[in-house]
Amino acid sequence: MKPRHFLSLLDLSADEFRQLIDHAIAVKKALKNGRLHQPLTGRVMAMIFEKSSTRTRVSFEAGMAQLGGHALFLSPRDSQLGRGEPIEDTARVISSMVDVVMIRTFGHERIETFAGHSSVPVINGLTDLLHPCQLLADMQTWFELRGDIRGRRVTWIGDGNNMCHSWINAARLLDFELAIACPEGYDPDPSIVEPAGDRVQLGRDALQAAQDADLVVTDVWASMGQEEEQKLRERAFADFQVNAEIMARARKDALFMHCLPAHRGEEVTAEVIDGPQSVVWQEAENRLHAQKALVELLVTGGLSTPA
Ligand code: CP
Ligand code: NVA
Questions:
Q1: 178 lines ligand 1 (CB under 6 A)
Q2: Nearest atom within ligand 2 for CA of residue 260
Q3: How far is C-alpha 48 from the geometric centre of its chain's CA atoms?
Q4: Over the stretch 103-129, which tens digit does the pLDDT of each residue have?
Q5: Which one of 90, 223, 273, 302 has the fewest CB atoms closer than 10 angstroms to its CB?
Q6: For the chain, percent of residues with pLDDT exceeding 70
Q7: CATH T-level assignment (fold) for domain 9-131+286-300
Q8: CB of 117 within 8 A of CB of 69?
Q9: How far apart are the first and last CA of the chain?
Q10: Span 134-283: which CATH code?
Q11: Could you say which ligand is closest to the alpha carbon of residue 291?
């Protein structure tokens, strides 16, 4: 039987997405109350990181331990992948020894190739195209604080990047409105925008996009792998900073999210990210809980209620 992968949010149905959020909230509660939830005893995850990470690595590694399993960290520097062993061969070998693989890499086609040759589920821990695990945590955070997101208005300000793409996919699945403001030349991929239909609006005016928003979201101007474009991007994105003026256009009870790491003074001011509307720490913590729910679903094929 072919394994079930999670390369994009669209690998879940809308119902499954909501079930995962509910389960993540239950798993979080069990952990906080000191109750063990260990459906993955003896199971192993391999984590391949071709880019840096703090949250993704710690959340998957801690999460696997809490589920009763184990996670092992592989960097290209000290695995044969970094010395040119084909990704197809690496996938066959690693997946013959572990129960699930998490990959953070550059081109999305690398993870697709790996998944195509893996006998176990593969999880996207970020590619240049998508960052679906982050959206599981972000949606858990919204549901915990505000309930269902259906029909709400979310504003994305900044780059049409991997995070923006995953927000578009979340808008499709969970049925909310997404107003995107980004500078010309930095639009999200049309092949991701178009299927979202009128749920997604694309514009150039950040203040207009923020009007009446329930939630304002941004991300760095230069993603991993774009470091040499930093100066160019600082100029291109100068009018796309989330600051007090932007937040004043949103609803009074609007929240602010950022996947982190953040650059205060660039895409967001310290006043906003460290202010009362920001929920970035809860978002980061929820990476742990949401991914535990995801891994349980992929590895066991279901979600067992925590004791
Ligand atoms: N948000 C996120 O994925 O953080 P890391 O790069 O630290 O994993
Ligand atoms: N867009 C950012 C997200 C980091 C979690 C990047 O790809 O570097």
A1: no
A2: 5
A3: 16
A4: 999 999 999 999 999 999 999 999 999
A5: 302
A6: 100
A7: Rossmann fold (3.40.50)
A8: no
A9: 30
A10: 3.40.50.1370
A11: 1
